[in-house]
Amino acid sequence: MHLQKQASVAKFKSKEALIGIVGLGYVGLPLMLRYNAIGFRVLGIDIDSHKVSKLNSGESYIEHIPSSKIAHACKSGFEATVDFSRVSECDALILCVPTPLNKYREPDMSFVINTTDAIKPYLRAGQVISLESTTYPGTTEEELLPRVQEGGLIVGKDIFLVYSPEREDPGNPDFETRTIPKVIGGDTPECLEVGVALYEQAIDKVISVSSTKAAEMTKLLENIHRAVNIGLVNEMKIVADRMGIDIFEVVDAAATKPFGFTAYYPGPGLGGHCIPIDPFYLTWKAREYGLHTRFIELSGEVNQAMPEYVVSKLVDGLNEHGKALKGSKILVLGIAYKKNVDDMRESPSVEIMELLEAKGSCIAYSDPHVPVFPTMREHHFTLSSEALTAENIASYDAVVLATDHDKFDYELIRASARLIVDSRGKYRTAAAHIIKA
Length: 437
Ligand SMILES: NC(=O)c1ccc[n+]([C@@H]2O[C@H](COP(=O)([O-])OP(=O)(O)OC[C@H]3O[C@@H](n4cnc5c(N)ncnc54)[C@H](O)[C@@H]3O)[C@@H](O)[C@H]2O)c1
Hints:
The chain has helices spanning 3-13, 28-37, 49-56, 67-75, 110-119, 139-149, 189-200, 212-242, 247-254, 279-288, 294-304, 306-320, 348-358, 390-394, 410-416, and strands at residues 18-22, 41-45, 78-81, 92-95, 128-131, 160-163, 182-186, 206-209, 329-333, 362-366, 398-401, 420-422, 434-436. The chain is α/β, with parallel strands linked by helices. The chain folds into three domains: 3-210, 3-Layer(aba) Sandwich (Rossmann fold), CATH 3.40.50.720; 220-301, Orthogonal Bundle (N-(1-d-carboxylethyl)-l-norvaline Dehydrogenase, domain 2); 305-436, Rossmann fold (3-Layer(aba) Sandwich), CATH 3.40.50.720. The strands form two sheets. An eight-stranded mixed β-sheet has the order 3-2-1-4-5-6-7-8, sandwiched between helices. A five-stranded parallel β-sheet has the order 10-9-11-12-13, with helices on one face. Helix 7 links the parallel strand 7 and strand 8. Helix 1 runs parallel beside helix 7 (189-200) and helix 12 packs across helix 13. The longest helix has 31 residues, at 212-242. It is elongated. The termini are far apart. Bound molecules: nicotinamide-adenine-dinucleotide. The site of nicotinamide-adenine-dinucleotide has 28 residues, from helix 5.
């Protein structure tokens, strides 16, 4: 009975396995590079033919992944394709496709389901399928398991199914794919064993949990923990500000406690593909059990109100100068959702820009990581990044520091701007023209 399992494990241990990565985005590409670097052949499968041809010609489309690395991978056994029939060649299929929310803020499972349906006809005995997309507990069991078994393959015996969430901290130079411990749960103990054999080759520390559901919930707990704590510190920021206390000074002081406290910093709101979205996957699923996720909803409410708070501080600042938002020239600094990256998904800066535009301000932005405002599904600005010269900065009625990239010249901004609205605690010394937001 265990012959298939043993054969699959042996293929990963000997590095003879062909690793299939489905979805070549922020999660899939680093994983591809890691398997490639340790000598595995990797086949990347994506529905986006533009990305596929770019990758095949050795070019990256993500700023923090250099083209040289993609080019090197292409020369050493990496290939990308849009042809799903090649799924049958792969020994592992690692699914790294998006899991956004729909317009009703409910899980949009269409990417996961479409991908599973697309690979389904080409599944064969001996393969391991690993879902890495962040999702609600029960997804692997309820959505993947029946589809994988449709063609007659038995999960745990012929084919192996696991869930192993991705963990990443974009822009953090201290961690890489290899050094970030990876949690994994299998549909059966046999699935887990094969899944661990797959990941152990590439990741220093693989942590097994008892089920795919436990692994799915682990990822959500991690991200809900962040969303709730950021919500808490954002609320504290408003209270502290009203009391004339600098919240950044307070967080730094509290962080000197060597136990029982983790520092979270306030900001203009939540951004990125994960923290503003993932918690609501649990909210949706909990409803099936007649339960409300009050912490998630409350922190969502606080965090979503932050762009408006920043705008209200800007209104106060302009008011002091006898100006209204309408007709004022405002420069937003940093439109990526966090410092030193080019990712703009769910960026609160964009919401701030929209709020300002709706009130009649004349908007511009500067972001060294985003030279041109990209085409986005729900946001439209025909803008490109402004150069930060003293003269240009001084030509705006106010600048709003939304994302504190290291590449900004903060002294130049301080010296040249007429009014600075600082949502990141970058300017700690009080000055008449600097407002904390
Ligand atoms: N970006 C992060 O830092 C991060 C961190 C942890 C977890 N995650 C999770 O990982 C998952 C993927 O996120 P991402 O940031 O890599 O997304 P992404 O949008 O960067 O990449 C997804 C890729 O999947 C492709 N794709 C879409 N539908 C497909 C299909 N049917 N078949 C094949 N390919 C398809 C897209 O073309 C795209 O290239 C999400 O669930 C996300 O929540 C992301």
